[in-house]
Input
Amino acid sequence: MSLGTDRLAAGVEGRFWAQVEYDGTDFAGFQLQAEDRTVQGEIERALREITGVETRVTGAGRTDSGVHARGQIIAFDAEWRHELADLHRALNAVLAADVAIVQVGLAPERFHPRFDAVGRTYRYTLLTQPWRSPLDRRTAWQVPYQLDIDRMAQASRCLVGAHDFSTFGRPPQGENTVRTVSQAEWRRSDPDRREWSPNHMAFDITANAFLYHMVRSLVGSLVQVGSGQLSVDQFGAMLLARDSSLVKQLAPAHGLCLMRVDYVKGRIPGQEGVMQ
Output
């Protein structure tokens, strides 16, 4: 399949993909809503401003109100008579300060950022100290006591593989609650933030897909493991029980960030982090 830019010069409608980064604090989630401000709505406003045409945007993940993203992937159809670099600059020039286009490119005609995805990675950030941090208040859940990260890491190991995660969430559509997790790791440091103190903790989880509130339910329960309220075995039993009433603590949305969406190599030319 040829993905050159010659069709753009003729002004022919094309399929585009883009990687989007946003601070979700002041958004009512990604998905378009009638009244509230959303990431999708902000991007569609920007596209309308630079193209003069109403353009519908689809996203890889419908992040909740307050959830952030570094690697959200979107797609849209548009007529653009200039270079891709000009589209990139034009969008960032008119987007609000809490949204940015990281990269943009041409996509296959029928590319869908959600249904074509083969994996997604989320990161949840904790700050374990009794005093507040003004610089972390939008992006980390402050837990005012220390947690046993080794116990939390041990408990997380049972998540890897294909499991029924109905204890920790509900499907966005249909009834299938089985998801395949390939990574579930806790760490004391974040390679993106070298200035982190020893009180910072991050949980990275990768899966083929996620249930609604799945990561936040997992983190809330794993924090209970780290504080001694739950044992490692009790956490494992929660997963097997398939009973959502066992979850007693939901981690707040602002500590969660969509880091990456993976596709089969070549599905989006030039996208960093694509799967082989």
